[in-house]
Amino acid sequence: MSISSVKAVGDRLAQNIERVILGKHEEVMLALIGLLCEGHLLIEDVPGVGKTMLAKALARSVGGNFSRIQFTPDMLPSDVTGVSVFNQQTREFEFRPGPIMAQIVLADEINRATPKTQSALLEAMEERQVTVDGTTYELAPPFLVLATQNPIEYEGTFPLPEAQLDRFLLRIRLGYPEATDEMAMLDAQQYHHPVTGLRQVVTLDELREAQAAVRSVYIDRQIKRYIVDIVSATRNHDDVYLGASPRGSLALYRASQARAALAGRDHVLPDDVKALAIPTLAHRIIIGPSARIKDITAENVIAEVLKRVPVPGATLGID
């Protein structure tokens, strides 16, 4: 598939999803970047802004198998991965797959589950497989986890482990809609929710071809160095207790390729890297205790790093 075809696939998906998610073009494009990179998304925001609807609209648009896991404190790992049950007739154990055995999985309010249950997602998210009772089951591609969490309400929640956060390619925040978009939402939902009328606009074969084509987008060596310098700067920052991992460098690399392809370009610009630095790296950084007292956030740190790290451009012919 050519880069122009990837852009066409992205345009169809964006147009379809934006029938439900109004006035959030940038956030929808971030979700598509995650889809094209075969990466997982953490959608973090207050209740009622469309986190679940974004996941449902994405699933309907690509026609993949969709499942929803409503995380609760009493959930067990087997409730996610599945369990082996003894069959009295055949006298053998049979595997009954859990909701993770789908192509697009909505992990709703993921931070309400205990760390033990959250860890059941680690193997599935990184290796695209699930191991139950010594048997490994491959997950059918494309496999995408869209997790939601409410950053405001902390009662009855558990913070996501760093290993779990690091497996999310992007963290997306939708925010409240503009007044005109909220008015349009009221009109659109007067009789029924528009998500029920969404149809599949991209086949799974087209999606797989687009995912493969994204990896062919050219990244100059200087831009690769720019990515590494940004990530390295987060590890050496005075306000950071734990910087971004090498997986963060790879996430920024892959996401930049996808952003370029969605724009119809066969090469990555420094602007692609700068635009995606916060969504790909902020959730991977742990701010030091003294910096938290001063209300310094991971977003502040990355914004400062972007100002400090030299941008390649002169030798690339980029203005």
Helical fraction? 40-55%
Number of helices: 14
**Biggest sheet layout:** 5 strands, parallel
Mean pLDDT: 86
Give your account of this protein's structure:
This protein is an alpha/beta fold. It has 14 helices and 11 strands. The strands form 4 sheets. The chain has a 5-stranded parallel β-sheet. A hairpin with a 2-residue loop joins strand 6 (129-132) and strand 7.
Q: What is the strand and helix layout of this fold?
A:
Elements: H1 3-17, H2 25-36, E1 40-44, H3 51-62, E2 66-70, H4 78-81, E3 82-87, E4 92-97, E5 104-108, H5 115-118, H6 122-127, E6 129-132, E7 135-138, E8 144-149, H7 162-165, E9 168-172, H8 179-188, H9 204-214, H10 221-235, E10 240-242, H11 246-262, H12 270-281, E11 286-287, H13 289-293, H14 298-308
Parallel strand pairs: 1-8, 1-9, 2-5, 5-8
Antiparallel strand pairs: 3-4, 6-7, 10-11
